[in-house]
Amino acid sequence: MSQSELAPLDPAKGVWDEHELTRRKFLEITFWSVTSVVTVGLLGAGSRFIAGNSFEPSTTSWVTLGPVAELTAGEVHRVNYSFKAKDAWRMVEQKGALYTFSDDAGATYTVLDGTCTHLGCIVQWQGGDNNYQCPCHQAVFTREGKVVSGPPPRPLRKLDAKIQDGILMAQI
Ligand code: FES
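The joint structure predicted for all components is written out below.
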């Protein structure tokens, strides 16, 4: 049947609009809208799963250095530590060494992270020279952690410390 054979439109019912929303077009728009929403939702959930906690601020831990009665004031003490911490997806063991000393008869303590700020080796206290020396690239730090020589770009990291019930603790 050709178009000319079709019955003319009744003017009372309006004119034919070829841009009118057809059933097929409506289903296409609905399908792509639902697909887009589901895809965005899945991508969001997937990226959250992959990223894990890696975008969250890392948590800190308090490490026990020991009773202050055993940390003789005026001397530098080394304390090795180790604890389990969550690193994004997995639990890892964090290890290191801290150095601590008191210049006010044990009222407060300075605590330094013994990790060299160059490439992460553990520095060694040399009481005879009154400094820390890094075995990896021969860096030297003062007792307070300032760089004397060598490649480290920064002083040793000073940690927050507190004495609780006679126990010295530091925040890693
Ligand atoms: S790691 Fe300590 S000087 Fe290089």
